[in-house]
Amino acid sequence: MTVSKVLAVSQRRGHHFSKTPSLVIRLNEGLGVEGDGHAGVTVKHRSRARFNPTLPNLRQVHLIQAELFDELAAKGFDLNPGDLGENVTTRNIDLLSLPQRARLHLGDSAIVEVTGLRNPCVQMDRFRTGLMAATLEKSADGALLRKAGIMSIVIASGDVRPSDAIRVELPAGAHQALLPV
Q1: Could you please report the per-residue DSSP string of 12-68?
Q2: In the CATH hierarchy, which fold is given to the domain comprising 5-169?
Q3: Please, which of 44, 90, 127, 171 could form a disulfide with 38 given CB 3.0 to 4.6 Å?
Q4: Dihedrals φ, ψ of 101, to 5°?
Q5: What is the SS3 assignment for 98?
Q6: What is the pLDDT of residues 37-69, one digit of tens each?
Q7: What ranges do the domains of the chain cover?
Q8: How many helices (H) and strands (E) would you count in the chain?
Q9: Cα→Cα distances 168→32, 42, 98, 114, 161, Å
Q10: Total-model pTM
Q11: How confident is the model over 98-118, as pLDDT tens digits?
C-alpha cells in the first residue's frame, strides 16, 4: 500500500507568490500557517480582500500534489516546493479528486478541511511564462480542469514536517466536487 505523505512545507511573511521551504510549519486552528502572509480569520487574497475584507478566509493552507511538479517538468517547467505558493507539498494523494469538506490529518495532530480548488491566475505566468496554461486542461465534455492544488482551513492545530503521514477522512453524505475558492 502506498503511503500518502508530506513532501515539503513552506511559509513566508507578507504577500509573495512563492513561499520559502521550511523544516516545520505550525498550523493554528482557524487561522492558518503561523507567520504566513495568508494566515487569518478573514480573507487575505488581495483581490478578494479589496472586494470584501470581511469574507471568511477559505484559503488558509494551500496544498499541491508533487505529481503536478512531475507533470510540469515534462513540459519544461523546473519547479521546486513552495514555488507556486503552496504551504504543503504532498506525494501519493490525489488532492484534486477529494470532495469538499474532506479532512486531511497531517502529522501527529494537525487537521485541515478542504474548501476548494486554487484558481490559477496571471501571477503564475509572471513567475514562468506559460505556467498558467500548463496547469489548466479541458475535460472531454469541455469543462475547465484546474490542477494548481487545493485550499483548506485549519480545524486542529499542530506542527507539520516533511515526511509526515497524511490520512484522509471523507465527509458523510454525497461527494461534492471541488470548486474554485
Answers
A1: -SSS-SS-EEES-EEEETTTEETT-TT-SSB--SHHHHHH-TTSB-S-SEEEEEHHH
A2: M1 Pyruvate Kinase; Domain 3 (2.40.33)
A3: 44
A4: 75, 5
A5: coil
A6: 999 999 987 777 788 889 999 999 999 999 999
A7: 5-169
A8: 4, 13
A9: 19, 26, 9, 10, 17
A10: 0.96
A11: 999 999 999 999 999 999 999
